[in-house]
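> call design_seq(struct)
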């Protein structure tokens, strides 16, 4: 830069030409060159979504028989952290804007809710002793 504030010899040229790849290919989702890896990614997202619903409706910490509230509270906190972490993983997968990933996440959450949260497979309606509070959307 010289005294008058102009830069000489450092002119910026046009940006390099863009390649023919799409943003999803640059994001690194498998499937554009390996269908088996794409199917594996869909299966993993599906089962993580089902597992999130399982954790949301689990009832394994029997609060009436646990004398050590600290231990049960720490276990409950660990389950909560696991559930939220896995839910964020599914959310990040959906944010890749891949239609297949979006569909398997919705189907996984729906099937998980049907199995673990709905009345379809319940013998009684005792929803009072869930280990974790229900996930809510404050949209």
């Amino acid at each position: 830069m010289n005294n008058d504030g102009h830069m000489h010899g450092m002119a910026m040229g046009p940006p390099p030409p863009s390649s023919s790849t799409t943003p999803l290919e640059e994001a690194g989702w498998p499937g554009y060159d390996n269908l088996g890896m794409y199917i594996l990614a869909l299966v993993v997202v599906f089962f993580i979504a089902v597992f999130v619903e399982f954790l949301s409706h689990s009832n394994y910490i029997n609060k009436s028989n646990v004398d050590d509230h600290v231990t049960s509270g720490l276990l409950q906190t660990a389950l909560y952290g696991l559930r939220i972490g896995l839910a964020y993983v599914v959310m990040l997968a959906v944010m890749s804007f891949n239609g297949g990933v979006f569909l398997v996440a919705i189907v996984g959450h729906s099937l998980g809710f049907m199995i673990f949260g709905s009345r379809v497979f319940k013998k009684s309606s005792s929803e009072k002793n869930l280990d974790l509070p229900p996930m809510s959307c404050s949209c």
